[in-house]
Amino acid sequence: MDLRVLRNFVVVARTGSVSRAADEVLITQPALSRQMQSLEAELKVDLFERSRGRLAVSASGRELLPHVVELLAADDRLRSVARSLSAGRLDQMTIAAPATTEADVIAPFVATLGLSDPVPSIVDLAGLSDSAALGSGADLVVGGDPRSQGLSRIRLCELPVWAYVPASHAWSSRTSVTVAELSAQPILALAPPFRARRILDDVAREHDLLLADVIECTGPQIAQALAAAGRGVAVLTDDPRFDLHALQIMGRDGPITTTLTASWSPTHHAAGALRDVATRLQAFCVSRYGTSSSG
């Protein structure tokens, strides 16, 4: 089925005249008439009612017309997407990130985007590897596992892993705490798939320490809420809530941090555009957190 003929059918139906439609689509009237007759033969439906030289869309034609318009709109969308793919443009972008990173990093960054930037949608990384998230439809992964291989990646910044305590805590006047001191406290942490928890467990092993009292929380907000209630020390990379006091956690080599990265597939049709977005996100993270990073 020739889409050009369908487009001409829509014009004939709109103008109610083959001659006026022929002038609009820039073909001769006999040629347009033959197209309409050929379309009727192909569809095995009378699209028009002809009486005394007048032409009107038939009941069948009126019923088919919305479907033709829908089909042509889909063709237009397909061609638009194909042009974007061919040009390496990115009109829409799916970013996979942990919930914490979405709230503290991605959402504030999205607020800085302009009308000419890709329209972003955010999905929860949900413990997936970078490769698995990209294979599931994400264009860009932020805050995933930097150990995934075969991906393009840029380091965004170094985020401190904080120990959060309320103002009533004995540490509230301090700026830092050692891993050994922390291990003696009830610790409010997320489950092991989360980045801050993995780092905490790794650092404890490096220092030959046992974290005997770890309360696993369902989310970072709950961990901070429990810390505010005096239930323990929340260990997170999140921005502070509930007027909690943040302390740096000191290991053997200095403050404990985690590297925030952005990853994408090097074979993505818009790999260049994704790198541009990641570079801008890097600059945003540096300005927000006051830390530098290298690519």
UniProtKB/TrEMBL annotation:
<keyword id="KW-0238">DNA-binding</keyword>
<comment type="similarity">
    <text>Belongs to the LysR transcriptional regulatory family.</text>
</comment>
<dbReference type="GO" id="GO:0000976">
    <property type="term" value="F:transcription cis-regulatory region binding"/>
</dbReference>
<dbReference type="InterPro" id="IPR036388">
    <property type="entry name" value="WH-like_DNA-bd_sf"/>
</dbReference>
<keyword id="KW-0804">Transcription</keyword>
<feature type="domain" description="HTH lysR-type">
    <location>
        <begin position="1"/>
        <end position="58"/>
    </location>
</feature>
<dbReference type="InterPro" id="IPR000847">
    <property type="entry name" value="LysR_HTH_N"/>
</dbReference>
<keyword id="KW-0805">Transcription regulation</keyword>
<dbReference type="Pfam" id="PF00126">
    <property type="entry name" value="HTH_1"/>
</dbReference>
<dbReference type="InterPro" id="IPR036390">
    <property type="entry name" value="WH_DNA-bd_sf"/>
</dbReference>
<protein>
    <submittedName>
        <fullName>LysR family transcriptional regulator</fullName>
    </submittedName>
</protein>
<dbReference type="GO" id="GO:0003700">
    <property type="term" value="F:DNA-binding transcription factor activity"/>
</dbReference>
<dbReference type="InterPro" id="IPR005119">
    <property type="entry name" value="LysR_subst-bd"/>
</dbReference>
<dbReference type="Pfam" id="PF03466">
    <property type="entry name" value="LysR_substrate"/>
</dbReference>
